[in-house]
Amino acid sequence: MTGPEPPDSSDQHQDTARPVGMESRHETLVRLLGGDSAVPEEAVKRFVRQAPDLGIDLELMAAVIGKGPGKTQSVRQVCMPIVGAGRTIMLFLSAGSHTKDIPAAEQRRDRAEAIRVAIGLAHTKHGSGAHLVQGLLEPRDVWAAEAYEAAGLSRLAELLYLSRIMRLGEAQGDIRQPGRIAPPEGGEWPGGVTVRPMVPGADDEALLHRALESSYTQTLDCPELAGLRTTEDIVAAHRAVGAYDADLWWLIERAGKPEGCVLLNRCADQGCVELVYIGLSPAVRGLGLGQRLMESAIGVSAALEREMRCAVDVRNEPARRMYTRLGFREAGRRVAFVGLVEDLMARNPPVS
User: Fold this and answer.
1) What sign results for the dihedral spanned by CA atoms 60, 65, 70, 72?
2) Which residues, in sequence order, are CB contacts of 34 under 8 Å at separation 6+?
3) Domains contained in the chain, CATH given
4) Which is nearest to 333 in space by CA: 349, 315, 350, 351?
5) Mean pLDDT of successive 10-residue segments in the chain (352 residues)?
6) How far apart are CA 271 and CA 171, in angstroms?
């Protein structure tokens, strides 16, 4: 007979993630904001002051807190969820470990535990107002990817962030053209298509929903998202980027039927216009419409700001080639992870 196997070293400590109380909030924020580095006292105070304006609820933070050398307690790992528009929870994780003797597997477990508790806190407080969980990380941050996967999130896609600096003379006249958006070189849009700004109200809102839904058919941009969110949630999330202006949201129609849309939001504080979304239904693809729409969008954006930004799934080769032709350049990459709150909660129910 053999004795019991020795316990896994990654399970030696008994610390578990828990909500962050006032007594440990300061140390938790230092850990979250600085990783292994010291954070000035004023930076922490400023973050606390600004948190409500940024939609950050500090009561939703979760941390694994254990004993540290020379201290009664030490914050090991932290997860801060931010519940935003479209019932989306964005996760932020602490990086590195100031306790160097903690094995990598244990750090991963701590982060995953903090993620699960943070999602549970968001679910408890917001209920059906918290639906989709997202995490964005740099491709080199393997530690974060492992934590997200351990907590039950799935890798969605690698996103390519693009930027285009506007050139003198590119501005396209008056952006508030009555009734329609003219193609950049004049004339007509191909395929009998018309393009016009949205008119605020229920009628055009319904047309926008139909346009979006038709554009998702056989899309090459994050197709795994299909069915994970309602169209209402998607529109709410799009509107929350920068400043929404109906004149910058264009409906693409043919024979009275919505066949796509272009959604631009101005981010004046960043000096840019964000291409939030561009999509066409299969019925109007292949007409060269995408590039001509983008040329008009560039002209309108140049009248507003000096830079235009967008993001694209790295697998979407046709879109990437078009953006390159139009002068967009890579500004960064992020790997997106997603999960549904109800699935994650069912897999990891809160401990009473």
Assistant:
1) positive
2) none
3) 12-152 (3.40.630.30), 161-333 (3.40.630.30)
4) 315
5) 36 69 91 82 94 95 78 80 97 77 87 96 95 97 96 97 91 58 83 94 97 97 95 98 96 96 97 98 95 94 95 97 98 98 84 48
6) 15
